[in-house]
Specification:
The complex is a heterodimer of chains A (about 650) and B (about 80). Chain A is α+β, with helices and mostly antiparallel strands and about 650 residues long. Chain A is built from 21 helices and ten strands. Chain A has two domains: about 40-205 and about 385-645, Sodium/glucose cotransporter, CATH 1.20.1730; about 220-385, no CATH class. Helix content of chain A is about 60%, strand content about 10%. In chain A, the strands form two sheets. In chain A, strands 7-6-5-10-9-8 form a six-stranded antiparallel sheet. A four-stranded antiparallel sheet of chain A has the order 1-4-3-2. In chain A, a hairpin with a 5-residue loop joins strand 5 and strand 6. In chain A, helix 12 (about 390-405) crosses helix 18 (about 545-570). Chain A is globular, with a radius of gyration of 26 Å. Chain B is mainly alpha-helical. Chain B has helices spanning about 5-30, 45-65. The radius of gyration of chain B is 17 Å and the shape is elongated. Classes of the chains: A alpha+beta (about 650), B mainly alpha (about 80). Chains A and B meet through helix 5, helix 10, helix 12 and helix 14 of A and helix 1 and helix 2 of B.
């Protein structure tokens, strides 16, 4: 899709980013000591800290990734919302208060409160870095995805811009500015998502035959099997030339017709009943051997009005004989959607003899009831299979989401910005309220985007901003700018967590470097710049991955590496220093290793076949989290101080 | 280390864990149950999902009310 920068968007964007950085400089003058830099002097009011939790947590992945996933696959994206929120229960009921009581700067402090061990600082510091970098990748990718439609710059410019802005925020004022940025952004995000949701419900649904650019997708037929067999250049697999009925497997098969108006023209088969099917228009994106891009047979344009892929996502049939529902309520929204028929899109890539490749985007007419149930997205399809391993994959992901939140370093450090345990508790409750409310909205936003007629068939991450665009231009500008600030805020928090780990855990506590207070701050700033630079590079490299998928990885690693140590330390007196180190190291390496050897990584990163993968399913949590606990218990038992007498 | 607040927290945690596990296990082993519509037109997947989010907030508030400052042995300067 071609995105034209709008003046409103550019102005709004500059106001947001400028305001954020200005605020940062202003606050920076008040945070000179290391206590101020890393923990905002422990003086953030609990309500502000609570909303800042929401700001930290509602990252680009939550906002862009979940909305995009719901918009393209329905209910499945909402499973992430549920898991992400449930994780806060672990944070509040189990981790929050002890974290505050035991630690000072980093979560390694809390782990190490009893032991004074350098090894714990080393292991926990490295796991903090690993998790933060994993979490950074999707944020940077999200930033690049946003800047493209907003300002018209290519992806890498967006990534570099975010990187630069964030480094500036972190370097100027550390945790003080990061907290206030998060507070502002958290409030804005929740408020405007609510506004957008109200508009969606108010707008209701309308029957369409194409997206908002006014292009109506053509359908031909209905045809009998023999009629189709006569028209096509090559019979689709499963259809005999003299067949009397359509086998169900033929649904959505692509065919080329003898009579065609352009190169690479495909039609998809949509079976109406046993003996009749219609042919639906597809869209094609062809990359020729010399790198040229063709959309629907014509060279891709650079300005509005020139050839581009048509926007998609609409309701083709409403319940009964209505063509427009008018304003709906929060529950009748689901009821109407449940009874209608929606055009979703799938894609398939075809290679040609001349070295060119065509991605064919085809319509998938889908009933509303099936987009409102889990199990459509490839990640979640497993729950509908009879194979137990596929089901395990789902269990594993839901477990990692549940355990991951309370182990994320950038969330944990926020417990050191308030003054005591009571404030830690209160701010978590505020956080749960704000985050929960937002996650309820994600389902409406995603489904609203699904039928907005404005989606970009090539980019799931843009669903939420494009939905806003279908309402009006200024809302699009605001939502995009908020989403961008979201990235800034979350990335600042992550970089700060990493810088804290480098300074406190690695340098001061492990290498015993003696640093004056102001030197600590300087070292942390240098570390921030380095981590920021790494994040920029990774953001460019991983450009084409859906952001919520990547966040799933970060949760798995965090949960496997950090949670066993944290929980056992709190609830088992027998936990030893060696046990904690072993649990963190084993949890981290096993989950990372599992991910690198998984089918998802094989197909999406290495470009290999998923079934060559060395582990049976992609999500590590269900194996590696218990493994972390087991390691801790075994090693602790072997290293008990009085083990000679046993 | 087992203060009154920590015990309350653990109890509420177990309640929520059961509720969440129910959701995950139904999804895993009986996904078709999620399509049942207890309210006309709104299926169990949506109701249970919203329920989990609301329950998290309700339990969090409940925890806030049940916790006493005495329960936090060392809660800063206020008593």
């Amino acid at each position: 899709m071609i995105y034209e920068p709008s003046t409103t968007a550019v102005v709004m964007f500059l106001v947001f980013v400028g305001g954020t950085i200005g605020l940062s400089f202003w606050l920076g003058s008040r945070a000179k000591s290391s206590q101020g830099y890393f923990a905002a002097h422990g003086q953030i009011p609990w309500f502000v800290n609570g909303i800042a939790f929401a700001g930290d947590y509602l990252s680009a992945a939550s906002f862009l990734g979940i909305c995009g996933m719901v918009a393209f696959y329905g209910y499945d994206g909402f499973l992430y919302s549920i898991g992400y929120l449930a994780g806060w229960i672990v944070a509040l009921f189990v981790v929050a208060e002890p974290m505050k009581r035991l630690g000072k700067f980093t979560f390694a402090d809390a782990l190490n409160a009893k032991f004074q061990s350098r090894g714990i600082h080393l292991a926990a510091g490295i796991s903090t870095l690993a998790v933060s970098v994993f979490y950074l990748i999707p944020q940077m990718v999200g930033a690049g995805a946003l800047i493209q439609p907003l300002l018209g710059f290519p992806h890498w410019v967006g990534v570099v811009l975010v990187g630069a802005a964030v480094i500036m925020i972190v370097v100027t004022a550390g945790m003080v500015s990061t907290t206030w940025v998060q507070f502002l952004k958290g409030s804005l995000l929740v408020v405007f998502s609510f506004v957008l949701t109200m508009m969606i419900i108010n707008r209701g649904f309308e029957e369409q035959s194409g997206g908002i650019d006014g292009h109506d997708f053509v359908e031909k037929g209905p045809f009998t099997p023999t009629q189709i067999a006569e028209q096509v250049t090559q019979l689709p697999e499963g259809l005999a030339a003299d067949a009397a009925t359509f086998p169900a497997s033929l649904q959505n098969s692509l065919v080329q017709l003898k009579e065609k108006s352009r190169d690479h023209e495909y039609w998809s088969i949509d079976i109406v009943n046993e003996s009749q099917a219609i042919l639906r228009e597809t869209q094609t994106l062809t990359k020729t051997a010399d790198g040229q891009k063709l959309v629907n047979g014509e060279p891709l344009g650079t300005k509005k009005g020139e050839p581009e892929l048509h926007p998609i996502g609409y309701i083709s049939e409403l319940a009964g004989d209505q063509t427009k529902t008018g304003s709906l309520g929060p529950l009748s929204f689901f009821k109407e959607l449940n009874d209608s028929k929606i055009i979703l899109w799938g894609n398939e890539t075809v290679s040609h003899d001349d070295g060119s490749k065509t991605t064919v985007y085809y319509q998938k007419p889908t009933t509303g009831s099936s987009v409102l149930r889990p199990g459509t997205h490839p990640t979640f399809k497993g729950i509908r299979s009879d194979n137990f391993i596929d089901k395990l994959n789902f269990l594993s992901l839901m477990l990692a989401l549940f355990c991951g939140t309370a182990s994320l370093p950038h969330i944990l450090i926020r417990y050191y910005t308030v003054k005591d345990e009571v404030s830690a508790r209160k701010s978590t409750i505020v956080g749960i309220g704000a985050i929960g409310f937002f996650y309820v909205l994600t389902l409406y936003l995603g489904l609203g985007a699904m039928v907005s007629g404005a989606l970009d068939v090539t980019d799931t991450n843009m669903a939420a901003p494009l939905l806003a665009k279908s309402m009006n231009e200024s809302l699009f500008a605001i939502i995009s700018a908020i989403a961008f600030t979201t990235v800034l805020g979350t990335v600042s928090g992550l970089i700060l967590a990493s810088a804290g780990a480098v300074t406190h855990d690695l340098l001061i506590n492990f290498f015993n470097v003696q640093l004056q207070d102001h030197e600590q701050v300087r070292v942390a700033k240098i570390a921030s710049v380095v981590v920021g630079a790494i994040a920029i590079v990774l953001g460019i490299v991983f450009q084409n991955m859906n952001v919520s998928y990547l966040v799933g990885w970060a949760f798995s690693v965090a949960a496997s590496a950090n949670l066993p140590a944290l929980v056992m330390l709190l609830f088992w007196k027998g936990t030893t220093r060696q046990g904690i180190i072993a649990a963190v190291v084993v949890g981290m390496t096993s989950s990372l290793g599992w991910i690198l050897l998984s089918g998802d990584t094989y197909s999406k990163v290495y470009g290999l076949a998923a079934d060559q993968a060395m582990v049976p399913f992609s999500q590590p949590g269900i194996v590696t989290i218990p493994l972390g606990f087991l390691t801790l218990i075994l090693v602790s038992l072997m290293t008990q101080p009085k083990s000679e007498t046993v | 280390m087992q203060t009154r607040n920590a015990r309350v927290g653990l109890l509420l945690f177990v309640i929520y864990l059961a509720f969440y596990s129910g959701f995950v296990l139904i999804n895993t082993f009986a996904p078709e149950q999620m399509e049942v519509q207890p309210i006309d037109g709104v299926n169990l997947a949506i109701l249970y999902g919203f329920g989990l989010i609301i329950a998290a907030f309700v339990l969090a508030m409940l925890y806030g009310f049940l916790c006493t400052t005495d329960g936090d042995k060392r809660s800063g300067g206020d008593q």
